[in-house]
Amino acid sequence: MSVPVKASTPSLRLVFYIRAVIGHGLAKLRRFLLFVIRLVSPSSSSAFRVGDASVSPQWLTSLLRRRGSIGPRTRVETVSLAPLTGNRGMGGVMRLVTITYGSTQNSVTLTDAAAGTDKTTQGPVTLLLKTSPDSMTGRRTCLFGGREREAWFHQSRFKGSVQTPLVYHAYGSRWFGEYVLLMEDLREREDAVGTNMLFGNQIWGIPEATRKALPKWSLTDPVGSQVALLRNVYLQMAEQHARWWNHPSLLTETWLKGASWYGGRDRASWELGIDRARRDWTTFKNKSSISDGNDHEEVDAWLSPKLVGIIDRSLASASWSRMQTSLHRSPFTLCHGDLHASNMHTSFPLSSPFNATTSSQIFYDWSEVGPWEPTADLAQMLISDVHPTITAAHSRSLVIDYWTRLTTHPTHPVSSAAYPFEACWDAFCDGGPARWIWLFAVMAQWVSEDCGRFFQDQLLRFIEAHGDKDAYLLKPIVCLL
Prior knowledge:
Strand content: 5-15%
Number of helices: 17
Number of strands: 14
Structural class: alpha+beta
């Protein structure tokens, strides 16, 4: 396989700066043209685009009617936008869309053919609007990181292996460097709760109002319910992974993250991601250092010297050639790319009795979706959300369940000879730390000390329970300039 010539960092930055200038200019031109059209024809409507101050009621009415969410005589009267409170995501701008209807007939009767009955579904009162930022920096970040892929995923044939939110509108453009997603507000569902709340919500804890709404089984048996939830997630991922295992079409869709890397292309974006982690990690250590007066420095007491050494050695040894060699020795499949409990909701039957084993997950935030080594996602979730004692006690049995489903899938079984369990387990033990070492190096300088301590402990204790290596081969990165 030929290795492309490495693009220089300045030239790549310049390319994406120019593309962002063009995209931002096109967006301003579009905004002006739409303003003129609305002056000439006040009743006209258009789809929401990045930079718009409001959502057209006429456009939303048409959208909801096409989806069957409201009846033909129902119209959207007002739409208001507000920042989404409590959102900790970094991938885009999140807003709450609140809807009022112009008649009392804001419902549509749907026939449940299986039950032979009719049921009435009210039109949504709230929706979630996710967009890229309307700025030069936002457009450059979107273009370089391929953030529009989340919108394209919801329009693609790759969607459907697992449950995802109802998306009313998805749009992404490489010309403009932007994307728009209008989707259901899962928080309004009586039968669903944020999965992160069922795992304790990391360092932030569970708000009292949310705690009251949690299913009883999550409180009476938190460890048992968390293990059962993890098993559900792993089995659902096995369904998706089996469906797309080593599927060649994943490598031809260049909008999927990682597809170009498997083809030996786009080396510069990967190396820039590694350089970003090295730079951020050095900056963090310099800010966190205490001089002893002899030109030697020691990092603050809360940082583990052991983990600092692992990160230092992993970043120092990272290289494109090593990553390429490893990729072509390992299987790939369609991966979520950022699998953790805050990127999913858990739904459960409202009828009693029920428990964690009868729940299912709704997966969202597919901005990092693409071909990759499957177990990196599985390990990432444990490091991100699960108490280390639970992880140490149950991770192997969870991976056994995943591998068993993968290799006994009724329609797309993966060969157990080609992918023996020990290969699966080894990839799991290495894949999680490799992903989280990069994440920790980048995020350490801007998170609070409490947050840094939490993720340091999560990462280090996972490493110590799963091979305890001195360094890891870094492969997964987020594309950041």
